[in-house]
Amino acid sequence: MTTIETTMDQPKKTNNIAATAAAKFQNSTSGFKRWGRKSPFIRYGLPMISLTVFGALGLGHLLQGSKDIAKVKDDQEWEITETKKALSRTGPVEAYKPKNISLEEELKALQQKVDINSYEYKRIPRPNEVKSS
């Protein structure tokens, strides 16, 4: 008879374990709901703020990476150009020397090219007129 009693005790224990697990699950869900009602900042505000902060940090990190890549590419292109054309930062080495030109000299050169006192009127045809030549 003792074996029958032990087998009878076993299902009671498993049922008891399942019941306590179900009770714990219900308590945890109700506790979570209660937690949200007691302090809504922890349930709603804290996740929102953390998503905003971590999202901004993550985007900043991604943008910095793209800036670094662009800088490396620019440096490589500059080195290629410099080696091909022997350039300095200002242009070809000793190839460009600007002249010191004043505005008065430029005006005199333009006046010599164009005579504004002798001109003749020329009629410009309208777009809808047909050329007869």
UniProtKB/TrEMBL annotation:
One of its GO terms (cellular component) is mitochondrial inner membrane. Keywords: Membrane, Mitochondrion, Mitochondrion inner membrane, Transmembrane, Transmembrane helix. It is a single-pass membrane protein. The chain crosses the membrane at residues 41-63. Its main location: mitochondrion. The keyword Transmembrane applies. Belongs to the COX16 family. This is Cytochrome c oxidase assembly protein COX16. It comes from Nyssa sinensis. The lineage of its organism: Eukaryota, Viridiplantae, Streptophyta, Embryophyta, Tracheophyta.
